[in-house]
Design a protein that fits this description.
Elements: H1 11-16, H2 20-26, E1 36-39, H3 47-53, E2 58-62, H4 65-78, E3 83-87, H5 90-93, E4 102-108, H6 116-126, E5 127-138, H7 156-163, E6 168-177, E7 181-188
Parallel strand pairs: 1-2, 1-4, 2-3, 4-5
Antiparallel strand pairs: 5-7, 6-7
Length: 195
């Protein structure tokens, strides 16, 4: 089931709307135990730089076969061979990854639907104890050149409500990720959670 308002613009324009290096730095990848899973990988805008910084596999999931093909092409051109691409509807089918097997799950610009809880449930299921979920989304406090309608954009309270009962706790402080995004991280289980 496709997330509403999730159509992708041309790749170069899309990438211009994100400070990709700053967001990748925010992930604090040296502390992550691979593999990593990215749900809604799109063109691979984050897939490739994250894969370059981890020492293991990255699983990239997208419901759109065209996005998977483009991201795989981008990875091939960059010489990155540690990404496994999955054309899969994670909301409907799950990821297929083993329970408790992933150190980090990326949910970028995907939590603006009633499927939010399903994505968070799957993230919690596949995370190792103390594994993290990194979430970014379009800001709702400013006008942005893209993104779903303001009412659909999740904020901290919406995400925490959807994560209730899933063994996912806030990790660190929320962050404005200029120019148009914000981010928060959750940790599974007994990690060092902070309000």
């Amino acid at each position: 089931m496709k997330v509403p308002d999730s159509g992708m613009p041309e790749e170069a324009y899309w990438n211009s709307l994100l400070d990709i290096p700053a967001i990748v730095d925010w992930l604090d990848l040296p502390g992550v135990r691979p593999p990593v899973a990215e749900i809604g990988s799109g063109y691979g805008s984050f897939t490739l730089p994250v894969a370059r910084r981890i020492s293991g596999t990255l699983h990239a999931f997208d419901i759109e076969s065209e996005m998977i093909a483009k991201a795989a092409e981008n990875a091939g051109r960059a010489g990155i061979t540690t990404i496994l691409f999955h054309n899969r509807d994670v909301a409907e089918e799950g990821s297929g990854l083993p329970e408790g097997s992933v150190g980090l799950v990326l949910l970028f610009n995907i939590l603006h639907s009633d499927q939010r809880k399903l994505f968070l449930m799957e993230a919690s299921r596949i995370l190792i104890p103390s594994g993290r979920v990194a979430i970014i989304h379009w800001r709702k406090d400013i006008d942005t050149p893209r993104g779903p309608e303001m009412a659909l954009r999740p904020d901290r309270e919406m995400i925490l409500a959807s994560a209730e009962g899933l063994d996912l706790l806030p990790f660190g402080a929320d962050r404005i990720l200029e120019p148009f995004h914000w981010g928060m991280q959750l940790v599974r289980g007994n990690g060092p959670a902070l309000e």
